[in-house]
Specification:
This protein has 228 residues and is an all-alpha fold. 81% of the residues lie in helices and 0% in strands. It has helices at 3-19, 22-29, 34-60, 65-92, 97-102, 107-122, 125-149, 157-162, 166-185, 188-214, 221-224. Helix 3 runs antiparallel to helix 4 and helix 3 (34-60) packs antiparallel against helix 10 (188-214). The radius of gyration is 17 Å and the shape is globular. The N and C termini lie far apart (43 Å). The structure holds 4-amino-5-hydroxymethyl-2-methylpyrimidine (HMH). 4-amino-5-hydroxymethyl-2-methylpyrimidine is lined by residues 44, 47-48, 82, 135, 139, 205, 208.
Length: 228
């Protein structure tokens, strides 16, 4: 059985839950509160930096030139395209550079990026790719689901369209293909670990949206504000 077939079967209930989350329903019908999206877009900019670091680390440790090239291009290319989207949205939703600089990564964001970076630094490339794959796959899945329901005058339209674009689709397919190739060459224990990491990362995607919807900060900002 292919890696994706099994990984998707294992995470199907969680993906269904993610599609139904209030944050994503609000994106689809345009009713998502502006403050929740502002919170999200700041956290996602922090997230993308960590995500790119994980991809770049995995690139440096990859077993062959093709994987090095693909992961390094993914770190640069996906991030570049998404940064433009974030700049657009930060302008549109009134988030300035000072506000961004003053907002530290939330616990959910820090958890997710720390997990990706630790995996890329200490595990095999097969495992690292399994861990970053839900970042691609889940966003395309959610993007498609929302796109099918989105109203034409939706204020979050540019965000939704990014994740149903041909270029994002190509990035998802390429990363899936790399995961399959590394899975085919992996030992059974590494394969087991790939499935566990894929599922963990999907759960952390859920946690990221859950945190954005609640606009969750550190539990005691007065204690952690200076150091978090
Ligand atoms: C949290 C999160 N996961 C995945 C993506 C898509 O790359 C994103 N922008 N943010």
């Amino acid at each position: 059985m292919s890696f994706m077939t099994r990984a998707l079967a294992q995470t199907a209930p969680l993906c269904k839950t993610i599609r139904g989350m209030p944050f994503n329903r609000g994106l689809a019908d345009g009713s998502l509160p502006r403050a929740a999206f502002q919170h999200y877009i700041i956290q996602d900019a922090h997230y993308l930096e960590g995500f790119a670091r994980a991809l770049a680390l995995a690139a440096g440790r990859a077993p062959d030139g093709q994987a090095v090239c693909q992961l390094a291009a993914s770190a640069a290319g996906t991030l570049q395209a998404e940064r433009e989207l974030h700049a657009h949205y930060m302008g549109l939703f009134g988030v300035d550079q000072d506000q961004f600089a003053a907002t530290r990564p939330s616990p959910a964001c820090d958890h997710y990026t720390s997990f990706l970076i630790a995996t890329a630094a200490t595990r095999s490339t097969a495992e690292s790719v399994a861990a970053v794959l839900p970042c691609f796959w889940v966003y395309r899945d959610v993007g498609r689901d929302i796109h099918a329901r989105a109203t034409p005058d939706n204020p979050y339209r540019a965000w939704i369209e990014t994740y149903v674009s041909d270029s994002f689709d190509a990035a998802v397919e390429q990363t899936c293909a790399l995961a399959e190739r590394l899975h085919d060459a992996a030992t059974d224990p590494t394969r087991d670990s790939m499935y566990a990491l894929y599922a963990r990362s999907t759960l952390l995607e859920w946690g990221f949206w859950d945190s954005a919807w609640a606009m969750r900060e550190w539990p005691n900002p007065t204690l952690t504000g200076e150091i978090a």
